[in-house]
Design goal:
about 290 residues, mainly beta, Pectate Lyase C-like, 20 strands
Length: about 290
């Protein structure tokens, strides 16, 4: 095992094709692609200050380290990478990687990050930036905060627990998404997505849940949500008021109250959607 400790590396490809190495308390300064095509690395307490540090790598562990803003486009085409206790300041990180584990990560500049990655596990991650998680597949998340629009566009096979997502146009064009015990705020939630399930969630979304094939909501609240479910097939149990519902294609919508129910498209058959409010439930019991 090669060991590097308390060293500073500069220049392009400083440790190119490094294999079977432990790197601790080091700094990678000016110089692109310092660890390109490397394998079997254990990195700790290390500073990455320049572009493309971990491209085309395999079997990498990074702990207690910092990727500064200029370490942009930092981890692309890398397989089996785990990162723990990381401040990741750089944008455009993590693309086209397979086998990504992230734990206790702060990403204050996560623009266009985690694109087209597969087999991703995230725990206790905070990210700020637009287009986070685009095109990812087979993702498990527990404990996540996102400040940024267009989150997870085109993602597939995604499970999220205990999240706070402040994200306009979140989950567009997605397939097979399940979200538990989370808060989501942002206009136009989930358009053009298929097989999306929300359980014990609170959602605020102007014109949310539209153009969706099989949107399921169980024990959820909809705050300040109007024109919901347009052109969607829906199975929703809402433990709150819905401001308005418009042109759902089919299914069932249950809510405490619905301010307005709109069917103004002659191509949408009203009788294909069962809409039940709390008053109707009480009347049926009496």
């Amino acid at each position: 095992m090669n060991r590097y400790s308390e060293e500073k590396f500069v220049g392009e490809r400083a440790l190119f094709q490094c294999k079977n190495a432990e790197i601790s308390h080091c700094t990678f300064g000016d110089g692109e692609s310092p660890l390109k095509e490397s394998k079997n690395l254990k990195i700790s307490h290390t500073l990455f200050q320049w572009k493309y540090p971990l491209w085309y790598c395999e079997d990498v562990e990074v702990e207690d380290s910092v990727l500064f803003e200029m370490a942009r486009a930092g981890i692309w085409y890398t397989n089996r990478i785990s990162m723990k206790n990381i401040t990741y300041e750089a944008p455009k990180g993590l693309r086209r990687c397979d086998g990504v584990t992230l734990e206790n990560i702060e990403m204050p500049n996560a623009e266009e990050t985690l694109w087209n990655c597969r087999h991703v596990t995230m725990k206790n991650v905070t990210a700020k930036g637009n287009y986070f998680g685009m095109g990812c597949s087979d993702v498990e998340i527990d404990g996540f905060t996102l400040f940024g629009n267009y989150g997870f566009d085109g993602a597939k096979n995604l499970t999220i627990r205990n999240a706070k997502l402040l994200s306009k146009d979140a989950f567009w064009n997605c397939e097979n998404v399940t979200v538990y015990d989370s808060f989501i705020s942002g206009q136009y939630f989930g358009w053009n997505a298929k097989n999306v399930t929300l359980i014990n969630c609170t959602v605020e979304s102007e014109q949310g849940m539209c153009y969706m094939d099989n949107i399921v909501m169980k024990n959820c609240k909809l705050l300040n949500t109007d024109l919901a479910f347009e052109y969607s097939t829906v199975d929703a149990e809402i433990d709150s008021r819905i401001d308005s519902v418009k042109n759902p294609v089919s299914g069932t919508i249950q809510a405490k109250q619905i301010g307005e129910i709109i069917f103004d498209n002659p191509d949408v058959v009203r009788d294909k959607t069962e809409i039940i409010t709390q008053k109707e439930k009480l009347a049926a019991v009496i």
